[in-house]
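FIELD: query
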Amino acid sequence: MTNTAAGIAAPDTKLATAATELVRDTTSELIYHHSRRVYWFGSLQGQNRGLSFDAELLYIGAMFHDLGLNEDFRTSGRRFEVDGADEARRFLQSHGVPEDSIRRVWTAIALHTTPGIPQFMEPEVALVTAGVEYDVLGISYDDISAEDRAAITALHPRPDFKKRILAAFTEGIAPKPETTFGNVKADVLEHFVPGYERGDFVGTIQNSAWPE
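FIELD: result
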């Protein structure tokens, strides 16, 4: 398999290879290709922003960021981002990775759907979110050239991606709707799950147990 596109190479290390194999074996083709694109788009955005980052840690964060959508985690009662982050932590610990590196990857995955915070943190944290935002939301679309986009999507295609990723989000989160309170995935369930009612922050305050 080609591991270079748009002038960016995927890390050629035992750790990266093991992560690739794990994710490819345990997730759908949709999530596998999306996760790889997140690495490439995040790397290019890192170059655009003049950031110095650890490519291997960025790669692990990108590859594991949606693992929590897997069926295994649908009864966990936790946000899918935390499930994916914890899986990455277990993987990295099993390979003897230093705790500071594990913390960066865990944080990158846990915060990748929390806008407005990751860009102020370590580069690996910022760039997992940047890659996700580029591939899923098209944020800063023109920051990456048409030629580079074409090279990346030739390596990892995205046929009918918008519809399919929304379906994957819905399937992964619908069994635990309480985990969407205060985050963007509430929008997904509101669109695609009949009868879903999103948590109301104001209502929660007004109806809390406090007597006043």
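FIELD: remark
The CA atoms of residues 138 and 169 lie 17 Å apart.
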